[in-house]
Prior knowledge:
Elements: H1 4-13, H2 51-63, E1 67-71, H3 74-86, E2 92-96, H4 101-109, E3 113-117, H5 132-141, E4 147-151, H6 162-171, E5 175-179, E6 201-205, H7 206-209, E7 217-221, H8 228-238, H9 245-259, H10 262-278, E8 285-287, E9 294-298, H11 306-317, E10 323-324, E11 328-332, H12 339-355, E12 379-383, E13 390-391, E14 396-399, E15 403-406, E16 411-412, H13 414-421, E17 427-429, E18 435-439
Parallel strand pairs: 2-3, 2-4, 4-5, 5-6
Antiparallel strand pairs: 1-7, 6-7, 8-9, 9-11, 10-11, 12-18, 13-16, 14-15, 14-17
Helix pairs in contact: 1-9, 2-9, 3-4, 3-8, 5-6, 10-12
Amino acid sequence: MSGLYEKLKNYGKQYICPMHMPGHKRKIGICSDIDITEIEGFDNLANPSTVLKELQDGWARIYGADNAFISVNGSTGAILAAICGMCKKGDKIIMARNCHKAVYNAAMLMELECEYIFPEYDDLGIARGINAESVLKAVEDNKDAKLIVLTSPTYEGRTSRIDEICRIAHENNMSVFVDSAHGAHMEFMGKENPIRQGADAVCVSLHKTLPSMTQTALLMIKGDRAMASYIKEKLNVFQTSSPSYVLMASVSECLDFVVNGKDRFKCYADNLEKFYEKAEFKSLELIKNDDLGKIVISTAKTDISGKALMKILRESYGIELEMAYDNYALAMTSVCDGERELNRLLCALTEIDKSVKVGQKKKVKYPTPRKSEKARGETETVMFNEAVFRVSASYVWAYPPGIPIIAPGEVIDNEIIEYISGLNETDVFGICNGEIAVYCE
C-alpha cells in the first residue's frame, strides 16, 4: 500500500516552513494539514514514479487491470480522456443511447460519428442493460466503427452482458469502453468488474459507492487495444495540473479500506438481503436490480410521486435520497451504511406505505428519438412546446443522472415534449425560459 495519507499526516507534523502553494500554508481551513503541492517526496500525478505510482498500481491489481490512473476530475474527466485517447477525429463509434453527457461531449470534441444502441425501458421508464443481440446488429451494420461505449451498471443498478459484448467487439476489431462510474464497489460484492469481463478501458467513480471523497475516480486499461500512453496524455489534458493531495489521500485510504474490508462488504451484502426480505408493502414497491445497493422505490401504484416520497422522507424522517422522478425514487447505499441505516429507511417506508393510497399503476413510456438528416446549418431559438417536428440543435437532459433525453440532430416529437414537460420538480437542462435551440428549416 502507498500510505499516502499517513505520509501526508506525518509530513504535516514536521516543523517545515512551506514557501510554496497552497496559500493557507497548512494553517487555515479543513484538511489544510495534508493539502500540499508537488514537493519533494510526494510525486507528481502527471507523471508518477514513486508514491502515486504505487497507489495506482495497487488499484490496478485490485481490479485486474494493466494500468489504473487516478482522476481528480471524477469519471467525467476519465470518460473524456478515454474516448479522446481511443479515437481519432472523425471516427465512427457505437454507443448506448443512455450514456452520460460526458460521452456526448467527448464525441463532440472529436467530431465522432455516433451510431446509437437504444436500450429497452421498463414501465417506470428505467433503462435495462444493453443486450448482446443489439450490439451484434449494430456491429454488423457499422463494420467501420472503432469503439463501443456502454454504461454498466446504470444509475439505477442495471448491468449489461459485458463479456458477450466484448467478444463480439473484439472479433470485429473494435475496442470497448465501459462507463462503470456507479460500479466501483461491485468487484467486492462477488461480481466481476468490466475489466475482468474483457473491456479494454473502464472508469469507476470511487466517491459514488466507496469511501472516497467527491471527484475521485479511476480510469483503468487492460490489453493493447486501448493505448495507455495516449489515454494518460489525454487525462492530463482533462484534469487540473494541480491535483489535490487531499483527494489523492482519500484514494489512498479507500484502497486500504477495500483491501482490508472483505468482512465489511459481506456484512453489507447480508444487510441488503435482509432489507429486501423484510420489506412488505401494500402499495410501494422495491425494484431489485443487479446492484441491490441501489434501492429503487416505485410509487407507480400509489397516489404520490417519487418526488413527493423524497420530500416526505426528507422532511418527516430526516432521510435524504439520491434522486427521484415522477414514479420512483432512488436510495443509494454503500458499504458505509450499516443495519441501523437500512432499518431506518425500511421503517420510514413502512410507515409511509400505510398512509398512501393505492392507485392505478402509472406507466411511463421513455421516448426514443429519431435522427434527422437536417442536423446542420444555422440555428434559431423557439418555444419548446412549439418545437414539434423541429430538429434539436442542443442537448436536453434531466439531472441526475445526466443522460440526454434528446441530442442535437434528433427530431423533437410530441412524445418527447410530453415526457419532458411531465418532469415536474426535476432539474432539466438545455431548455432556458421555455426555449430550445433548433436548426432552421
